[in-house]
Amino acid sequence: MEKLGIGAIVGPLPTRANLEAAIDMRKRRLTFNEEKLAAEYSVPNYLDELYDLGEGKILILISRANRRNLHRVGFGFPVTDRRGRRRLVWLLDRRLAQGIDPVLKLNGWA
Predict the structure, then answer these.
(1) How far is the CA of 15 from the CAs of 28, 51, 67, 84, 103, in angstroms?
(2) What secondary structure, in 3-state letters, does 23-69 show?
(3) Are the C-beta atoms of 76 and 58 separated by less than 8 Å?
(4) Residue 41 in contact with residue 11, Cβ under 8 Å?
(5) Chain centroid offset of residue 42 CA
(6) For 56-86, how does the pLDDT look when each residue is reduced to its tens digit (9 = 90+)?
(7) Strand, coil or helix: 3
(8) Backbone angles phi, psi at 2, to 5 degrees
(9) What is the per-residue pLDDT for 3?
């Protein structure tokens, strides 16, 4: 995965509740407790490790296209098809936004 410039972080979606558990106050400053974050999230080194994840586990895809700036590409998850084969499925952020925009416009939120 490193040769392709792609990485993955395995764990729950980053929500306010997940991040609040890892935030500490020190000298009136907010700091992240890395040990608490590491307990919930992991970074696999090889693509095969993603196939071994359990059902319902979510991974965040990250790209290092220009070697300097990391950016999130989308979300993925492993699924088992009808024939019993494991597949990795992902939703690109761009495509997800394109699908959500018409719904927001219909409801008058955009």
Answers:
(1) 23, 24, 27, 32, 22
(2) EEEECCEEEECHHHHHHHCECCCCCHHHHCCCCCCCEEEEECCCCCC
(3) yes
(4) yes
(5) 11
(6) 788 888 887 766 777 888 888 888 889 988 8
(7) coil
(8) -70, -35
(9) 66
pTM for this model (two decimals):
0.63
Residues 88, 58 contacting (CB under 8 angstroms): no
**What residue has token string 């997940």?**
18
The answer to whether 68 and 52 have CB atoms below 8 angstroms apart is: no
Residue 13 tokens read as 């979606």
Which tens digits make up the pLDDT trace of 2-40?
666 778 888 877 777 777 777 887 788 878 777 877 777
The torsion angles phi and psi of 21, rounded to 5 degrees, stand at -65, -25
The residue whose two tokens read 């088992």 is 80
DSSP 22: T
Report which of 19, 15, 54, 48 is spatially closest to residue 33, judged by C-alpha positions.
19
